[in-house]
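Exam revision sheet. Question 4 asks you to relate a sequence to its structure. Input first:
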Amino acid sequence: MTGTPIDAPLLIAGDIEIDNTSNKKTARTATLLIMRQLEHCFEPSNEERSAICVAFARKGKPVYGKAFDLFQITAQYPRTTDGIEQAILHGELRLLEVKSTGREKIDENFSGYFFSLSTAELLVAQALGEMYQFAFYNTTTKTLKLHTLSEIYKKAKGVYPTWSIRF
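Answer key, structure tokens:
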């Protein structure tokens, strides 16, 4: 990537209440904390999510709207359809999928952490490479680690394919 690095850390503000009472609340807490910690990191509005999907589709890269939670874009690009397309063109946009835990026993490298990966996340990660990363966040230890799919595969001690079906 060129220009301003989009992963420059910021201080985490102390006004976010940590809630680990359910997986959904832990994920929400992690999302809020990540946006505080990473510069130019946003939760996409419906319009931004659509613009991101369309812009990547125009580049021949499929992006499923539910396959990412956050995005980072360098400050020089506005969060408009044109700005998003320009950021993608210059490699200055990154999609992040949040994986969170509140377990104290998970170390800073997330050793022993077991998580699921949807087919949509897998396909988007394969299509986008470095422009798609998994943001692992421990809400108890305030640890954040960003990994590409290839980095995850290198660290993995096991992969257990499953299908989840909802009626």
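Marking note for examiners. The chain has one domain: 23-155.
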